[in-house]
Amino acid sequence: MSDSTMDVVIVGGGLAGIATAYYLGKQGVRSTVIERDAVGSHASGFAYGGLGALDGVGVHGPTQAIATASMRLHRDLAVSLPEDTGINTEFRERPGIALCYTDDEARTAKANLALREKQPEYECRWLDRDELLAMEPRISPEAIGAAYAEGTVDLEPYRFILAMAQAAEGLGTTIRHGTVTGLKRQGDRVTGVLLGDEEISCDAVVIAMGPWSGFASKWLGIPIDVTPLKGQILRLRAPGVPYRYSVGWDGHYATTKPDGLVWAGTTEEEVGFDEQTTVSARDRIMGELLRMLPSLADAQLVQQTACLRPVASDKLMVLGRTPGWEGVYLATGGARSGIILGPAIGQITAGLVVTGESPLPIEAFDAARFAA
Ligand SMILES: Cc1cc2nc3c(=O)[nH]c(=O)nc-3n(C[C@H](O)[C@H](O)[C@H](O)COP(=O)(O)OP(=O)(O)OC[C@H]3O[C@@H](n4cnc5c(N)ncnc54)[C@H](O)[C@@H]3O)c2cc1C
Question: Between 3.30.70.20, 3.30.9.10, 3.30.1360.120, 1.10.240.10, what CATH number should domain 93-152+227-312 receive?
């Protein structure tokens, strides 16, 4: 069913909100995205942009099926977005090398490789130290081996969200500046959103406020247990040929991006809504980077960024209908994988708004779990 007369308001112009607008537009529904800063001005524009749905690293449990579906959507978007908008999202194959420094790490990495045998879209294998150093001689010989994965990709997150936003506008989406401060309802049904003194009438609302989604708890009268987890990234000018792989260890990573700079991250900091960069994070990231790639000691820092991931207390997404409300949907909690998951979050949420059905199982992401 498509319903071009339906009024949908999406609160938040990060990837979760913009992807929802895009997939609504694909179904003939025009929506209004309300963003209080600018599209992609928080985590969705400043992430690392590494994409993969490999089992055994970060994306697991009920999130795995959604991440796999989202990777397929990413591959479609890699073709359609540049055609529709002329924006190159810098989507490219980027094999991953996950280093191991100890026997324990190697055992865990090998167990994860066994899990991935069921994922034919990735080609994964163990590299011993000699193979590893033959592949990338600048890796530290302190590494005893690595898990290697082909089939992972990366993109430039800011270009990607701009392209998604432009394509959504081409499908009838309106992007509006403003801060939503509450909702209006009649009985259980939502009837509008409040933008300061102004009220915008609508039939459906999508809460896609990223790490700020917890503020909607008081509008909705139910707990939305999502908080910010800060992460920082360094962009460095380095001598030598570009790195062809994304090299990582225990949540730290680095590669050469299409801008010619080495991007290196990251941190996990529970510091509330503070988005300032810090010297201590810079030093920590550099410390881990040099442990992986010691020759970057001469690299010159060009830029440091910081942004906030939306993380639920149980690390799962918050996706689907809002308990106690008709017409209000939650689309948040992407945590460290929100760019991977973004297209699927958008497609699922658009499906719920338009047909009442999710194209994928989402029971595990129901916000009712926080009340329980
Ligand atoms: C350092 C770092 C690296 C990362 N790297 C990766 C990666 O490599 N791969 C990956 O998959 N993921 C990565 N992520 C995670 C990913 O960036 C996030 O999960 C994702 O961007 C979250 O998107 P979002 O739309 O939910 O939130 P956001 O991007 O935060 O967007 C939410 C938007 O809502 C707006 N908003 C909030 N309240 C209101 C209101 N009341 N009214 C109007 N607007 C409002 C905000 O201004 C904001 O623009 C990384 C994150 C960080 C921090």
Answer: 3.30.9.10
Q: For the chain, give the longest Cα–Cα distance.
A: 67
**Cα(211) to centroid of ligand 1, in Å?**
7
HSE-CB at 90 with a 13 A cutoff on CA atoms is 18
Look at residue 372 in the predicted model and tell me its pLDDT. 75
Three-state DSSP state, 325: coil
CA 3 to chain centre: 29
* Pocket flag, ligand 1, residue 309 (CB < 6 Å): yes
Q: Is 179 helix (H, G, I), strand (E, B) or coil?
A: coil
Q: How far apart are alpha carbons 249 and 128 in whole angstroms?
A: 15
Q: What's the CATH superfamily of 8-86+157-225+313-371?
A: FAD/NAD(P)-binding domain (3.50.50.60)
Strands 204-207 and 8-11: what pairing? parallel
* Mutate which of 10, 33, 36 for ligand 1 pocket (most atoms within 8 A of beta carbon): 36
The pair of structure tokens assigned to 23 is 């997939």
What is the 3-state secondary structure of 217-276? HHHHCCCCCEEEEEEEEEEEECCCCCCCCEEEECCEEEEECCCCCEEEECCCECCCCCCC
pLDDT digits (tens, 9 = 90+) for 10-60: 999 999 999 999 999 999 999 999 999 999 999 999 999 999 998 776 688
* Closest atom of ligand 1 relative to the 340 alpha carbon: 11
Give the model's confidence band at 4: pLDDT under 50 very low, under 70 low, under 90 confident, else very high.
Answer: low
Which atom of ligand 1 sits closest to the CA of residue 34? 43
